[in-house]
């Protein structure tokens, strides 16, 4: 059995089912899987393979966010062996930039606990987590990134 990681036609090819960063330690709190199915991860272009594609035309494959905040990570390239991603990100404001991030770090990151007032009481304090936008479908950056930030 061949366990070699290869890059073929701009895609990272791993042995079937190999993904080294899938702990998903907050799965129960999140209520959904942080990572998409392995078949989706394996179809994302390898790091550096879209550098010749104009930014608005790059395909965005996954969107992560902190709900009700201006924190977003959009994945355009991914090394599924390490979780290192390249894409567009913003941290707390209307503007963002293209750069690298590591999915395993996003998955385990928690923001300060917060509770919301509800009928005169404060709800239990729970950590806020980075969520995968499970409704997101791959699309060109020009169609899914906040304008005019591309």
Explain what you see.
- The chain is mainly beta.
- Helices cover 13% and strands 35% of the residues.
- The strands form five sheets. Strands 7-6-5-4-12 form a five-stranded antiparallel beta sheet.
- Strand 1 (6-8) and strand 2 (11-13) form a beta hairpin.
Question: Which characteristics define this entry?
Answer:
single chain, 150 residues, mainly beta, 4 helices, 13% helix
Secondary structure tally: strands? 13
Question: How would you classify the helix and strand content by structural class?
Answer: mainly beta
Order of helices and strands: EEHHEEEEEHEEEEEEH
Question: What is the CA-based Rg, rounded?
Answer: 17 Å
Number of helices: 4
Roughly what fraction of the amino acids lie in strands? 25-35%
The biggest beta sheet is recorded as: 5 strands, antiparallel
Percent of residues in helices comes to: 10-25%
- Main sheet strand line-up: 7-6-5-4-12
* Uncertain residue segments: 115-120
Shape: globular
Q: Cα distance, first to last residue?
A: 43 Å
Oligomeric state of shown chains: single chain
Name the average pLDDT: 79
Brief account:
This protein has 150 residues and is mostly beta strands.
List the helices and strands and how they pair.
Layout: E1 6-8, E2 11-13, H1 27-30, H2 38-42, E3 59-60, E4 62-65, E5 71-79, E6 84-91, E7 97-102, H3 103-108, E8 110-114, E9 117-118, E10 121-122, E11 126-129, E12 131-132, E13 139-140, H4 141-144
Antiparallel strand pairs: 1-2, 3-13, 4-5, 4-12, 5-6, 6-7, 8-11, 9-10
